[in-house]
Amino acid sequence: MRSSNPVFSRRGFSRDNGGYAGVEAPQHQQAGTNPYATNPYATDPATGMPQAPARANAMTMDDVVSRTAMTLGTLIVTATLSWVFLPVDAANVNKSYGIAIGAMLVAFVFAMIQSFKRKPSPGLILAYAAFEGVFLGVISAAVSTWLGAGVVVQAVMGTMCVFAAVLLGYKMGWIRVTRRFYGFVMAAALGFILLMLTNTLFAVFGGGDGLGFRSGGLGLLFGAIGVILGACFLALDFKQVEDGITYGAPREEAWLAAFALTMTLVWIYVEMLRIFSILSGDD
């Protein structure tokens, strides 16, 4: 299965011949005869059962939870350290911002490398989380310093609420991840990212907020769209985890799930931080 999040295209759980690498699919589901082999969300309509048998030493939900906790824990620790040791007062803000931007670029490089690797690398994933945490810690400290500590708390709570709401909706069956859903979300996310990149270019070369998509009423609108897209990608991540467990993905694939969930949560948090920053600035 291939999946993505709003920032990077990433490798998901991949099935060969309707199963996972190293697991042979049933004879009637071999390549060329299995009409569902290229569908990451399909089950056999005749039985309603998964298309591939479980494998030994397969990924479990406990594996996903523990790897995600390690990844998010690393991010939170480095974010806290950068908040404390990279002050954003008038005398140090430029230096801290420079370090934060550098950390963001390093995190981007690590994320891209992992996205194109055939197998998950725990070291790369944890390194991504560490450098991403530095970036988030500085911008969160800046928002807290210049706009008020409550903004960061609101963004964190908002992110947690989105996660809980999507998880509940997915488990209750209110959110159904289909190929059409996947295609719509990917197209919408691509358009959103291109629009934000265009806005950034106008801001860099024209000054101000570019086309105005990140401030005022338009900023709130596009921030809300960003949060909705992040929620949609959470649903894709949950489906990715569910399929990985159902189809017997190898245990190491839990690191990919942790990587995907972390990136999506970072996306939602940044959009939440922007929304509440705009609202706080309008007070």
Your description of this structure?
Helix 1 packs across helix 3, helix 4 crosses helix 6 and helix 4 crosses helix 7. The longest helix has 31 residues. The strands form 2 sheets. This protein has a two-stranded antiparallel sheet with strand order 1-2. It has a two-stranded antiparallel sheet with strand order 3-4. The protein is built from 7 helices and 4 strands, in the order E-E-E-E-H-H-H-H-H-H-H. Strand 1 and strand 2 form a beta hairpin. It starts with a strand and ends with a helix. Helix content is 66%, strand content 3%. The chain is mostly helical and 283 residues long.
How is the largest sheet built, in terms of strand order?
A: 1-2
Topology order in helix (H) and strand (E) letters: EEEEHHHHHHH
**Alpha plus pi helix count:** 7
What is the CA–CA distance across the termini?
A: 46 Å
General shape = globular
The total beta strand count reads 4
| Secondary-structure class | mainly alpha
The major β-sheet equals: 2 strands, antiparallel
Poorly predicted tracts of residues: 1-42
Mean pLDDT: 81
Give me the Rg, rounded.
20 Å
Helix content: 55-70%
Strand coverage percent = under 5%
Quick overview:
This protein has 283 residues and is mainly alpha-helical. It has helices spanning 61-85, 93-116, 122-147, 149-171, 179-206, 216-246, 254-282, and strands at residues 3-4, 9-10, 15-16, 19-20.
